[in-house]
Amino acid sequence: MTKGKIIQFRRGRHTITNKHYLIEIEKVDNKEKAAKYLGKEVIWTSPAGKKIVGKISGVHGSKGVVRAIFNLGLPGQAITTEVEIK
Fold it and tell me: Are the CB atoms for 19 and 8 separated by under 8 Å?
C-alpha cells in the first residue's frame, strides 16, 4: 500500500466538484509516475473509523498529482489528511 495526502477539491474558477479530490502521492513527482496509479482504489478513514472508498481517475497537471472520485463526498476536514492507495 502507498500513502497519499488529500490536497484540495477538484475546482475551477466558479465551481467546486464535491466528489472529486486532488491527491499527492508519496515519491511521485511527475506525470509518468502518476499515470501508473490510474484505476487504483483509494481509502480514506475517518477519525471515527468509517472508511470511504474512491478510485483514481486521472492525472492532474505535470507534478504528479492525481484526481480521485469518491462514492460519497468526503467532509471538508478530510483535506490535508492521509489516504491509502491499494
Answer: no
Largest CA distance in the chain: 35
Q: What is the Cα–Cα distance from 57 to 41, expressed in whole angstroms? A: 10
Non-local (6+) Cβ contacts of 44 within 8 A are 6, 51, 52, 54, 70, 74, 78, 81, 83
User: In which residue ranges of the chain is pLDDT below 70?
Assistant: none
pLDDT digits (tens, 9 = 90+) for 5-28: 999 988 889 988 889 999 999 999
The DSSP code for 37 is T
DSSP label at residue 14: S
> Domains in the chain, ordered, with CATH?
2-85 (2.40.10.190)
Residue 9's pLDDT is 86
